[in-house]
Design brief:
5 helices; 2 domains; alpha+beta; Alpha-Beta Plaits; single chain
Length: about 180
């Protein structure tokens, strides 16, 4: 600090004041400002977490909870497409479980690799699963109502029903569902 000793008292005060201001600016930008920025983010995350917790604490019999439950049931459950050698068996297994759940028996089930989707840079292909069998009309309706819960089924491509010639309560049905798979 030999240079500081050569300065006049007024100049020493100016230099010390300038160094103090520079130090305060550095402290602000290196410590205080990042803390306040993360503090704001933490506050918004805390608010969203409190809203989620409030939804979980709702009375199960309240109309708001019932409406939320109905909305969640309407939203289909989907998973991202896997390669076709994995996606096909997953669709077939989930669809077979749905058939068992509603009490339908499939005589024949066939998984067919379909066409690739045009203008798709990701290279997805369509997999069709065709099933045939017999059952009652209510069972088929329950199956169609339950399909949105299948995470691998994208939609129904074809559904045909014919009444049995001997027993009018039984139907012969054929349904084709499809999914997308990556190459």
């Amino acid at each position: 600090m030999p240079m500081l000793e050569k300065l006049q008292p007024r100049e020493k005060r100016i230099v010390l004041f300038s160094l103090t201001v520079c130090g305060l600016i550095l402290i602000y930008f290196l410590a205080v400002e990042p803390l306040t920025r993360t503090w704001g983010e933490v506050r918004t995350q805390l608010q969203s977490a409190r809203q989620k917790a409030a939804l979980l604490k709702l009375d199960p019999k309240s109309p708001q909870t019932q409406q939320q439950k109905r909305l969640m049931e309407l939203v289909p459950v989907l998973e991202l497409p896997k390669p076709s050698d994995q996606q096909g068996p997953l669709l077939q297994e989930a669809f077979t479980n749905q058939l068992r759940k509603v009490g339908l028996v499939s005589r024949r089930m066939q998984l067919v690799r379909g066409r690739s989707i045009r203008n798709d840079p990701a290279g997805y292909i369509v997999l069709n699963l065709t099933a045939q069998g017999t059952g009652r009309y209510e069972q088929l309706l329950n199956l169609l109502a339950d399909l949105p819960q299948n995470p691998y089924c994208v939609g129904v491509q074809k559904c045909s029903i014919k009444p049995d010639q001997k027993d009018r309560q039984k139907l012969e049905w054929e349904i084709t569902v499809f999914t997308y798979a990556s190459r």
